[in-house]
Amino acid sequence: MQSDGSGRLIDSRSARQVHWKIFCDKSIETTHIRTVNDTLVVKHRKKAKYLTSLRTSAMQISAYTISYALIYLYDFMEKVEVEDIIYADTDSIVYSIPDGEEDPLENSIGDLKRMNPVIISVQLKLRGDEGGGVQVIVDPQTSLYQNFIYSARFRMVIRAQTEVEKLKRTLELRGKRMTAMQKRIEILENVQRELDRRIGNLQAEARVHQAVIEGLQEQTNRDADVIDFLHKEQLAYEGSRLCSVCQYRYDSAARTPHVLDCGHAVCGPCLDRLIIPPPPNQTVDLVLRCPVCRKIVYVYPARSRVVFSMIPGVLPVPPRDLDI
């Protein structure tokens, strides 16, 4: 069988061969005969005891097909599983249907867009009493032009129902998503409220700790002021017992304190060294410069040097826990 380019399949063999193979061959059993337009479709099969394996797996079909028709052919090939395709050409496809499975192109009748479109399905089944064989079943040609309008309307209804079902599923999924999002928002709000409560508690504790820290800092500052005061008092006490020049302690012997007019005190030996000697044969007041404040003070030679004893004030005993 081959296509004549107008959507029909014709037998490429002579009438005598067809007559001999179909009507005179005792191994062939005719099951159905049907006429479609000017074509005679004969459905036949071999008897079980005459079944043999095919000599080749290729079926040579030559035809001219426009590219628009190839699109539908490719669509048919996509519907059929790859392992079930036996042969595919420019205008035909031969495929097998495994036992227990439905025909994938059963609902594709009427999809062709040409006048008198015809689909021929070739089914191959392993069968045989001895050693097995292959049974080839050719479905009769079916004219689809009369049922084209009905099929188109039916497909439109099916397509609309499919779209409605898809829309229902989409709306159902969106409703579930919205419910899940609402629950998630409630959970997040509860978590946020709990976090705000914990943050408020932490802030209150932080304020209490800050107040405690400030109190401790004030106490530390007061203790530091007391320590500084006691340290200065100790330094003043020690300084009042030392000569401002030689830094030796005063005693009741030679190192007695002498108070100058500026108020600073030095020991006797240092006072003698600090006096500027007058010119010879002149009786003037002795002059010296205070080593502390650098003021010029006078020492009167007419009077004896008065020794002033310095009695420092009594300082309180610092606490034992303070490091002075």
From TrEMBL:
Taxonomic superkingdom: Eukaryota
Gene Ontology MF terms:
ubiquitin protein ligase activity; zinc ion binding
Coiled-coil blocks: 178-219
UniProt KW keywords: Coiled coil, Metal-binding, Zinc, Zinc-finger
Q: Which GO terms describe its biological process?
A: protein ubiquitination
Q: Does the keyword Zinc apply?
A: yes
Q: Where is the RING-type domain?
A: 243-294
Q: Which InterPro entries match?
A: DNA/RNA_pol_sf, DNA_pol_palm_dom_sf, RING_finger_E3_ubiq-ligases, Znf_RING, Znf_RING/FYVE/PHD, Znf_RING_CS
A Pfam family assignment? zf-RING_5
Protein's UniProt name = RING-type domain-containing protein
Q: Which organism is it from?
A: Caenorhabditis nigoni
Taxonomic lineage per UniProt?
Answer: Eukaryota, Metazoa, Ecdysozoa, Nematoda, Chromadorea
